[in-house]
Amino acid sequence: MTRQTAAPLPNTRMSASNRSISDLVHQYQDGLITVDAPYQRESVWTEAQRVALIKSLTMGIPIAALVINRRDTPGWEHANGRLDHGNGEPMYAVIDGKQRLLTLAAWLSGDLAVPASWFAEFEGGDTRHGETTPRPRLRIVEATEDTDDGPYVRITGLTPAGRRRWTNLATIAVAEARVSTMAAEAEVFVLINSAGTSQTDDDLARAAKIAEG
At what angle do helices 21-29 and 98-108 cross, to 10 degrees? Predict the structure, then answer.
């Protein structure tokens, strides 16, 4: 096996941005983003992993970037033919982050519940004539469901103000590539997922024990 290449490596420039989770989920639900490229796994995250992702976002902890490829480009169309969006062909493909996007879609669709205790009241009110009016406390949770772990809530069980607050604050870093072939997408996927050494269950258990004090 050799790591040598026939030509210098291309510079796969990616544009980076922070995007609204709500907008990305809507694009996925509208068929503009596909998660079904052949190099992808099926949906494999456990409920615990999905709940942990929503916990991170609720706490404002950054999560790994979503890496997507834009396919309605001259390069992609030259290699693969022009996309026909009328036939449901997606404009973007998820290269890395399929499990995160599916989890976010489940949460925003009300298909995932998390502990209700995570959500605190927050201050409302506004500013008028240069003075701040009294800022009442606004509820976040209005409907819960009983579980063996106590009351849980879905986003549909948050108040309208609570749903707006969560979706307005929730963003995710997105890296957008413009590579021209499925093989190039798969190479990016391999490079992202083969660098470094994955944390073992023992590694995570040790850190969790410290986190719990």
Answer: 90
Residue 129 has pLDDT above 60, yes or no: no
Whether 205 is covered by a domain: the verdict is no
Answer whether residue 24 is part of any domain. yes
pLDDT band at 131 (very low <50, low <70, confident <90, very high): low
User: Considering its fold, how many domains does the chain have in total?
Assistant: 1
| Contacts (Cβ under 8 Å, ≥6 apart) of 153 | 113, 114, 115, 116, 119, 141, 143, 144, 145
Q: Identify the band that residue 133 occupies on the pLDDT scale cut at 50, 70 and 90.
A: low
DSSP E strands, the chain? 15-20, 33-34, 66-70, 92-96, 114-115, 122-123, 127-128, 131-132, 137-138, 145-147, 150-153, 171-177
User: Which residue segment(s) compose the domain that 76 sits in?
Assistant: 15-195
pLDDT at 197: 81
